[in-house]
Design goal:
Largest sheet: 4 strands, parallel
Strand order of the largest sheet: 1-2-5-6
Radius of gyration: 18 Å
Structural class: alpha/beta
Distance between the termini: 11 Å
Order of helices and strands: EHEHHHEEHHEHEH
Strand content: 5-15%
CATH class of the largest domain: Alpha Beta
CATH topology of the largest domain: Rossmann fold
Helix content: 40-55%
Number of strands: 6
Number of helices: 8
CATH architecture of the largest domain: 3-Layer(aba) Sandwich
Amino acid sequence: MLVGHSWGGVVACHVAARAADAVGGLVLLDAGHVDYPDQVPPGIGSDDQVAGFVAGFVAGFEAATAELTMDREDALEAAEQDGARRPLPPAMRAGIRAGFRHADGRWTPIASPQARAWAMTALGMDRVSSTWPAIAGSGVAVLLLLASEPSEAREANVVASERFRAAIPQAETGFVDGGGHDLLADAGPAVARAVDAWLHRSVS
């Protein structure tokens, strides 16, 4: 089974579209149902425009990286908890720490601002809907769990999920009560129960 959240869901859709035989089931966590280019500024297309867009991202990420460089263990601890509505499980905490390097008593993000900027630019130019016909044709079981908060996100997800289901008829969709875009941090137990029930129904 392949699980993807946010940009990871876009990657998971591309994997499922290209190697369906290797994917026993596809779980998308508030992901894979929206074409991100529809959400980025219009007119980003030429090399110069993309370069300018990346430069803006670099500046922003350099500032964010400076804020994320931490002197004390408890500062990293606070970053792990930022925005979470419940304590993070050990596996998630370990995953966050894997994104930092520790040297000279400081924790610093591993990814450079430039790498993050180009990654975000690639994300903003990808149309995940291009993968839907192949996923539909493969018959691979799909579960799409959606954020229900804030209300604006839920409204947008209602429309996007209808388009997704029309393109991939075998897909099941559902909203996670109390969950924002970071479904695992906001409502991890509910997500686990939903995936477990779906597995018993849909995946042999």
